[in-house]
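Components:
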Amino acid sequence: MDISRIGASPERAEPIGVGRFIAEARRYPLVPLFVLVALLIVPAIFADLIAPHDPYEVNPRERLTPPAWSGAQYLNGVQVRPEGSWKNILGTDKLGRDVLSRIMHGARYSLSISLLAILAGGVVGSGLGVLAGYFGGLLDHVVMRLVDIFITIPGLLFALVLAIVLGPSFQTIVLVVAVILWPRFARMSRAETLSMRSRDFVSRAKVSGCSDTRVMLRHIFPNVINPLVVLVTLEVGHVILLEATLSFLGAGIPRPIPAWGLLVSDGRDLIVGGNGWWVSLFPGVAILLVVLSMNLSGDWLRDKLDPKLRNR
Amino acid sequence: MQRYIIVRLFQSLIVLFAVSIIIFGLARVSGNPMDVLLPDDAGPEEFELMQQKWGLDKPLHIQYFAFLGNALTGDFGRSVQHPTREALELVLKRFPATLMLAGLALVVSIAIAFPVGVLSAVKKDSMPDYVAKTFALMGQSAPSFWVAIMLMWLFAVQLNWLPTSGRGDPGIDRFVHLILPALAIGWYQVAALMRLVRSSMLEVLDSEFIKLARLKGVSEARVVWKHALRNASIAPVTLLGLLVAQLVTGTVVTETVFSYPGVGLLAVDAIRNRDFQVMQTIVLVFAVIFVGINLFVDIIYAYIDPRIRYA
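Structure:
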């Protein structure tokens, strides 16, 4: 026996076939990605096809049906809650609308609002950040002071004021979330641009006659995009939570659209009254799982693309 | 130091100035400010009075100074919802309730997050560490309003230990009504704070001076709670400043769930009734407090760490 091998871990044979596939697959955050696809992306695209019921269909006779597996409830011999049925797997709300179908359709709003808001906030924020970092001087000063101002004020308050002025709607909430997001993108892209500006390849590009626009678009932007992509994935979770919170407070998507925050809000009074826990519970679980998976995937991508950010 | 304080004070004033411009601008860009500032059933004399007081027939910059002057003297106009009440009066009346809630939530979260974070770092990769890490991850992913509703469901409806809503009568009843809301707000804060305490403890525990302290024979408890924690608490203390912003969000959401009559609930009522006067008052009052706290934290911070003063 070779004495240098004592205490070392036994050598493993290179896995082949299925084993190799599993070993490869384990490098990716499979469970979170699966949850995201199953709970967010598929319902968002195919809600019309896979939802068992129309999310707006009011059905007074089946109001407050509990989830399929729960039994009837009696109080002093009088039935106060019917038995659950497989027709409405996750039960119905106080108007008899199917909870599962409403959650599926709600995924659409969560996904589209987050994507649009991040796109808007990301483009404006990183654009301003690159400009500020590249040109410096007064422009830099103005942009960074604006960033400071927007970061100091709690975003929710801004959102509530805007909701009053513009009235709650899809466009308002996208705008509100974008307004809250852009400073973070501006800050990060400015910092990255500053570190690029003095690099040799940038000055050489300038010497060779590239215009400022070309230097920014072709030479600087491709080099700052990695941390921005990571920021996007880390922010999606926040944005979904923010959207849900605003809708819950009545400052987001208006009723009767089944946004997730509204679904939880619908169940609040039922819980206080003690006659229906499922209306709030399931949409909340959907938000929790999606945000959790988003955060886990974001962490993974960050370690992959930009280990510098790990302690942020 | 003096110079630093003056510069920071000046910056704070600029932020407040900007907030006032934004609020003023929002009321004007939305079309006729009368639509936002007056209730739908306002009569012509009310209209006239409003026009004069806020200088609405004058150019915009004059209007802004009228607005600023009124705001500085504490006149934010009357509530649309309760036309007989001053907006500021409504907000200030609700303020103690919110302050109590936010204060308790902050105390609870510091009292939980620091010990648990330290323990989780010291016993890295043990069972308690996994539990704490899972809690932190879940805490930051769960929507706060949902956590609040679920807490209410479990402890108030199912177990019937605590009241579901309201503020209660003065005395011990007040405190009983505060427990669930404070926990609901604290949940998120604990998660965020604990994670940071854990990671900065891990970093410090790995450093040379800790090894030296151990070599010298300092007891393990003293190494952890004195030598390490002191040095590890710089980052978490910075986060506290940010957590105050989170507290504002937390109170708005939690007060809505528990029908707790604080400023947050007033804000949500203001949205429902499109009561701009009340909302702008809340935002400005919160902005002043918030900027004030940040200024305070920064000054304390510069006092502790001289590198910041001269940066």
